[in-house]
Amino acid sequence: MERNLEEKKEESLWETLKTVFLAIVIAGLVRTFWIEPYKIPSGSMYPTLEVGDFLFISKYTYGYSRHSFPFSFPKFEGRFWDDKPNRGDVVVFKYPGDNKTDFIKRVVGLPGDKIQVKGGRLYINGVPNKREYIDNYVINNIIYSVDFKKYKETNPEGKEYEIIELSDNVKGVDNTIEFNVPEGHYFMMGDNRDNSNDSRKDVGFVPYNNITGKARFLFYSHDGSQKWYNPVTWIKAIRWNRIFNKII
């Protein structure tokens, strides 16, 4: 009798371990091939994405390169099942400077494009994107708040999205040289146009193989006001109006 109980306990433990292992494998496959969660760490994509937003990116949209896999392994060239990003897509990519750090920006320039910013306006192949003023936009930090102007920008394909600007004359980002996007590369910019490290600065042109996924929708968002010792603040900090918002 005791022996049967021990055998049942061992069998139960083994079944539990197999279930846990299977769950880990399935989660790994889903994360690698289908969708992956991503947390917004900085304010470079305001007003589209805010610090404290959690979103899903689709890994399958553009196919798979070595950077689609954990630790960029196994190492191989090119992509398979590939599909090209569209202008206006919000994408996650590996920073070309180290091929490790994840960045999230908007695709504004395609291979072969000429990109320039003049007086705060984005020019694509010599033509400025349409830009309409919407309202003022305030980013509140713990110590201070910053006032921006919010605009609706329309790209050549007719896609509309919102951007913010401090002014049209911020040094280094509002008046640039004309960039010629090479084949196999893309030009990225943050929607927070005056506070974004993107292709105008250190990021440079982003190789197609560095793009790992397309931003799809938010599944959680909080404003950072929660206190770990006070569960009530956990609920109050949730931005309920942002949950399940589609990323445009």
What does it look like?
The protein has 248 residues and is α+β, with helices and mostly antiparallel strands. It has two helices and 14 strands; from the N terminus they run H-E-E-E-E-E-E-E-E-E-E-E-E-E-E-H. The strands form three sheets. A seven-stranded antiparallel β-sheet has the order 1-2-14-3-4-12-13. A four-stranded antiparallel β-sheet has the order 7-6-5-11, with no helix packed on it. The chain has a three-stranded antiparallel β-sheet with strand order 8-9-10, with no helix packed on it. The longest helix is centred in the first third of the chain and has 32 residues.
Task: From the structure above, extract its key features.
single chain; 248 residues; alpha+beta; globular
Break the fold down into its secondary structure elements and pairings:
Layout: H1 2-33, E1 35-39, E2 53-58, E3 90-94, E4 102-109, E5 114-118, E6 121-124, E7 127-128, E8 130-140, E9 145-154, E10 160-165, E11 179-180, E12 185-189, E13 206-207, E14 211-221, H2 231-236
Antiparallel strand pairs: 1-2, 2-14, 3-4, 3-14, 4-12, 5-6, 5-11, 6-7, 8-9, 9-10, 12-13
What does the average pLDDT come to? 89
Question: Strand share of the residues?
Answer: 25-35%
Sheet with most strands: 7 strands, antiparallel
Strand order of the largest sheet: 1-2-14-3-4-12-13
**Spans of at least 5 consecutive residues with low confidence:** none
Give a brief description.
The chain has 248 residues and is of the alpha+beta class. It contains 2 helices and 14 strands; from the N terminus they run αββββββββββββββα.
